[in-house]
Amino acid sequence: MGIQQCTSLRHAPELTDYNSSSLSALPVIVEEDDPYAEAVRVISDAIKRQAKRNARNGHEMLKSKAKAFESHEKAHAGHFSGKLAELDSKLQETEEKVEATEKQIDEERLRHAKAKEHIAEKVQEELSALQEEEEKAIEQQHRAESTIQAAEAELHKEEAEVESARQHHKEAIREANKEEKEIQKLVEKEKQKELEDEEAADAREESAEGKRKAKIGVSSSKYHLGPAFCSELTASGCPFAGAGTEDCKA
């Protein structure tokens, strides 16, 4: 039982403060008359020696494990230090990128604000120009409407004048037709008069011709004209060549 307790010191580094002196200081109760006193003493000495060895071995093991732990911690710390340095570098790079991005965003916002302001100014200028053009167009429309109204009034006046002139023209045509009819009647009367005058002149001429023929006939019968003289009168185209032909034949 005691030996098992001593060998278990390997697995209990926290008991490394025990040393041989502390173990040797433990009281060993031995009864003088006990037949097993010598055996107990031998076992006690063996336990003490084993405790010393265990203490020494535990101390060495503890130092070795402490060194290994320290080395592991140093390696772990170095690894974490490298990781931290890498992370710090990445963090710094990220912060620089974020700062550059924020700067770019600020510049973009400023550019956008300036562009927006420029667009607003341009839109305002265009709006003012459109309003001015609209006012000019309205003014021109009013002038055009006034001009159209004046032109319509003038057109109505001209239409009234044209209608009046048309009525006068119709009246003039009616008067002209009436005068033309009167003139036609006068012309017809004049023609009728001329025809009657011509007929009267023809009648007078025929009457005079008859009288001349009668005179020639009397003369030819009185002077007994010959056939030769009558032929000469006929050849010369004398209008009285036929008069007294009976006498010429005789």
What helical percentage do the residues reach?
Answer: over 70%
Mean pLDDT: 77
- Structural class by sheet pairing and helices: mainly alpha
Strand composition percent: under 5%
Q: Would you count the extended β strands for me? A: 0
Distance between the termini: 228 Å
Sheet with the most strands, sense and barrel status: none
Polypeptide structure, described:
By secondary structure, the chain is mostly helical. The protein has a domain at 2-102. The protein has five helices and no strands. The chain has helices at residues 2-7, 20-24, 37-223, 227-235, 245-249. The radius of gyration is 85 Å and the shape is rod-shaped. The termini are far apart.
Brief rundown of the structure:
The chain has 250 residues and is mainly α. It has a domain at 2-102. 85% of the residues lie in helices and 0% in strands.
Essential attributes:
mainly alpha; 5 helices; disordered N terminus; Golgin subfamily A member 6-like protein 22
SSE blueprint:
Elements: H1 2-7, H2 20-24, H3 37-223, H4 227-235, H5 245-249
